Amino acid sequence: MNTTYELPLDEAGYAFGFMDEYAKKEVRRTILKAICIPGYQTPYASREMPMGRGFGTGGLQLTLSLIGSDDTLKVIDQGADDSVNAVNLRQFVQMTCPGVDVTEKTEEATLIQSRHRIPEKPLTEAQILVLQVPYPDALVVVEASEARRKTMHGEADYSRLLVKLYEDLVKFDEITISHRYPTRVHGHYIIDPSPIPRWDVPKLHQSKALILLGAGREKKIYAVPPYTIAEPLAFEDVVFRVEDFRDASGNRRTCSRCGASNSFLDEFSDEADGEADGKIYQCSDSAYCDEQLARQASAYQKPKTEEAA
After folding, report:
1. pLDDT of 43-82, one tens digit each?
2. Which of 110, 193, 279, 286 ranks highest by number of CB atoms within 10 Å?
3. Which residues have CB under 8 Å from 35's CB, separation 6+?
4. What is the CATH number of the domain that holds 160?
5. Do residues 278 and 166 share a domain?
6. What is the spatial distance between Cα 65 and Cα 231, in angstroms, rounded to a whole number?
C-alpha cells in the first residue's frame, strides 16, 4: 500500500524552513557527523535553492535545517547587517520561517549566518555560527585531483601546503595569504575557514559557540565544535600574525565612525574626508560599530543629566 506524507504548509505555501523534512534531517545527520570528526569535509546531498549557487546556498541550508520558531536569527555579509546579500537571505528566512525573530545585535542571536566574517563580540555556548563557504578544501591550491586530496587529508599530508607558505616567505619575506588562511583543527584536518580575514582566524580556537561551515556548490559540510583546538598553519620560527592596520608612522588606525581601535577595519577611498593617503577606515562589523556609538552617546548624556539634576 502506497502512502504519501504531506508537509504542513504556512500561509505563503511553504513548509517551515522551505526544505522538506527529509532534506533537513539529512543535513542534520551530516552536521552530527561533521561535529564528531572536527574539520572533516562531510559530503551531503546539497539541494537546489531559489538563488544562484555561490550566494550562500550551503550556509542557508544549514540555517534552514537548524532554525526553530523560538530562535533569533542574525545574518551578516562582510560584517554588515544591511548589505544586499544579508538583507535578501534574512527576508527569505523570515518568509519561509514564520514566527522566527531577527536581530542585528550579536548577543541576542541564537543562530548567526555569516559571509566572510566572524562577529567582533565573543560568541557564547548558546549560539551557533554558520559560515558560508565557496571552496571548502584548503588543498585545492596545490592539488587539483579531489581523490588525491582526500588521501592527503586522511594521511594528514600537508607538506605541499607548507611548501607554498615557504615560497611566500622566500619571495615576500612574509606569508601573503590575506583570507581563507589554512587552519588545523583538533590536530589533524586542515580546513579552509571560508574567506574570513586573518583577523578572525584566532576566534576559531576554543570557541564557545559551535561553528558550522557549509559549501552548497561543493556539497560539503564541516565543523569546528566548541572548545576545539584550531591553529593557523605556520612555521615554528614564523609567528602567525593578523592585520594590524598601522599607518606609515606605525600608529594603529581607528574607525572614523566610532573610534574603535580593536576591530577589523574596512578601507574606503575618500579624498575629501580621509587621511593623508585619501582613505578612511570603518568597522567591518556594523553591529559592533553601532554599539560603540551608542555607548559613547550614553556616556556623553549621563554627565549632563546628573548636572541638570
Report:
1. 999 988 888 777 789 999 999 999 998 999 999 999 999 9
2. 193
3. 210, 223, 225
4. 3.40.50.11310
5. no
6. 29
- Backbone dihedral region of 175: left (phi > 0), alpha (psi from -120 to 50 degrees) or beta? beta
156 and 275 together in one domain = no
Q: What is residue 154's predicted lDDT score, i.e. its pLDDT?
A: 94
Cα dihedral 136, 140, 146, 150 in deg (nearest 10): -70
Active site residue ranges: 39, 255, 258, 283, 289
pLDDT digits (tens, 9 = 90+) for 151-209: 999 999 999 999 999 999 999 888 888 899 999 999 999 999 999 999 999 999 999 99
Nearest Cα residue to 283 out of 125, 76, 112, 93: 76
Domains: count for the chain: 2
What is the rounded average pLDDT of the residues 2-28?
Answer: 71
Residue 56 covered by a domain? yes
